[in-house]
Automatic annotation (TrEMBL):
<comment type="function">
    <text>Major role in the synthesis of nucleoside triphosphates other than ATP.</text>
</comment>
<dbReference type="GO" id="GO:0006228">
    <property type="term" value="P:UTP biosynthetic process"/>
</dbReference>
<keyword id="KW-0808">Transferase</keyword>
<keyword id="KW-0460">Magnesium</keyword>
<feature type="active site" description="Pros-phosphohistidine intermediate">
    <location>
        <position position="115"/>
    </location>
</feature>
<feature type="binding site">
    <location>
        <position position="9"/>
    </location>
    <ligand>
        <name>ATP</name>
    </ligand>
</feature>
<dbReference type="GO" id="GO:0005524">
    <property type="term" value="F:ATP binding"/>
</dbReference>
<keyword id="KW-0418">Kinase</keyword>
<protein>
    <recommendedName>
        <fullName>Nucleoside diphosphate kinase B</fullName>
        <ecNumber>2.7.4.6</ecNumber>
    </recommendedName>
</protein>
<dbReference type="GO" id="GO:0046872">
    <property type="term" value="F:metal ion binding"/>
</dbReference>
<dbReference type="GO" id="GO:0006183">
    <property type="term" value="P:GTP biosynthetic process"/>
</dbReference>
<dbReference type="Pfam" id="PF00334">
    <property type="entry name" value="NDK"/>
</dbReference>
<dbReference type="GO" id="GO:0030027">
    <property type="term" value="C:lamellipodium"/>
</dbReference>
<feature type="binding site">
    <location>
        <position position="102"/>
    </location>
    <ligand>
        <name>ATP</name>
    </ligand>
</feature>
<feature type="domain" description="Nucleoside diphosphate kinase-like">
    <location>
        <begin position="1"/>
        <end position="138"/>
    </location>
</feature>
<keyword id="KW-0539">Nucleus</keyword>
<dbReference type="InterPro" id="IPR036850">
    <property type="entry name" value="NDK-like_dom_sf"/>
</dbReference>
């Protein structure tokens, strides 16, 4: 089954939104397979956001993302990379529809509370960057038979 990397950013952690985000993914029917509460280094964030290295906000973004704890997770489910991005909303909360996480819970592009992998390839890369294989849990959820035909 497809997996994606989701992280509550330092602003989401400080604002006490971790539980709300876990709740949205759980109630959608996704399965949590890894989670940890970490303060990342600036170097780690530079690798995480390497595809943005030429953008003017890259330095500030990496510094900010390493300024406080992040709640890092791997979620699993059908088409989760694409559907999680839809749940997040647009990069800019001002363009995000009500009902989406960013559309409901934040206002500023530089403080948009949550990260989600944008492609399956990046999901695999990011999961490898944040989690060791032994930190991932394999199990069958009892809800599985009721979520999928
Ligand atoms: P992530 O899930 O965090 O990867 O966001 P995204 O995929 O929606 O956007 P992208 O990867 O393009 O940018 C990464 C992060 O950089 C965004 O979530 C924003 O916090 C920040 N960012 C993107 N564009 C801008 C911008 O124009 N100005 C500022 N200040 N920050 C930006
Ligand atoms: Mg991105």
């Amino acid at each position: 089954m497809e997996q994606t990397f989701i992280a509550v950013k330092p602003d989401g952690v400080q604002r006490g939104i971790c539980g709300e985000i876990i709740k949205r993914f759980e109630t959608r029917g996704y399965k949590l397979v890894a989670a940890k509460f970490v303060q990342s280094s600036e170097e780690h964030m530079k690798s995480h956001y390497a595809d943005l290295k030429d953008m003017p906000f890259y330095g500030g973004l990496c510094k900010y993302m390493s300024s406080g704890p992040v709640f890092a997770m791997v979620w699993e489910g059908q088409s989760i990379v694409k559907l999680a991005r839809m749940m997040l909303g647009e990069t800019n909360p001002a363009d995000s529809k009500p009902g989406s996480i960013r559309g409901d819970l934040c206002v500023n592009i530089g403080r948009n509370i949550i990260h989600g992998s944008d492609t399956l390839e990046n999901a695999k890369r990011e999961i490898g960057l944040w989690f060791k294989p032994e930190e991932m849990v394999t199990y069958t959820s009892c809800a599985q038979a009721f979520l999928y035909e």
